[in-house]
Specification:
single chain; 142 residues
Length: 142
């Protein structure tokens, strides 16, 4: 049989090993189960992620603002060019209409010059109708 001292020494060493292992296990379990510490870590990670997302969002917003500004300026230039084009078309159309009116007036003048009696009778009829309407209205004929 073994000596009592050897057995006690082995028991003492086993107890110390057991206590050391238990302390290490406690420490590991505390770290693993420590909800408060894990929550703090998660909150810190969340803050970092939120700051990163804010930075990326700010950059994207600035980029889209610049793109929007450029697009608006491009559309403004296109709109200005289209407005000038429409104005020029309108001017040309007005010139053409004025020219047509001038031509018709001149053509009518030439016809009236060729037929003076007809022209005088038409003008006389218009003046007579105007005088009759005026006098009739003043004298309450109708």
């Amino acid at each position: 049989m073994r000596d009592r001292e050897v057995i006690e020494r082995e028991m003492f060493q086993a107890r110390e090993d057991l206590e050391a292992n238990l302390a290490e296990l406690k420490h590991v379990v505390t770290e693993t189960v420590d909800v408060k510490a894990r929550a703090k870590v998660a909150v810190e990670k969340g803050k970092i992620m939120a700051a990163d997302a804010l930075e990326r969002g700010t950059e994207l917003a600035m980029e889209y603002a610049v793109k929007g500004k450029e697009a608006a300026m491009e559309y403004a230039v296109k709109g200005k060019e289209a407005a000038i084009d429409y104005a020029n078309r309108g001017k040309e159309g007005a010139r053409q209409l004025a020219k047509k009116g001038e031509d018709k007036a001149y053509f009518t003048y030439l016809k009236a010059k060729d037929r003076p009696v007809l022209t005088a009778s038409v003008i006389g009829g218009i003046v007579a109708a105007g005088v009759l309407l005026y006098v009739g209205h003043r004298k309450n004929w109708w």
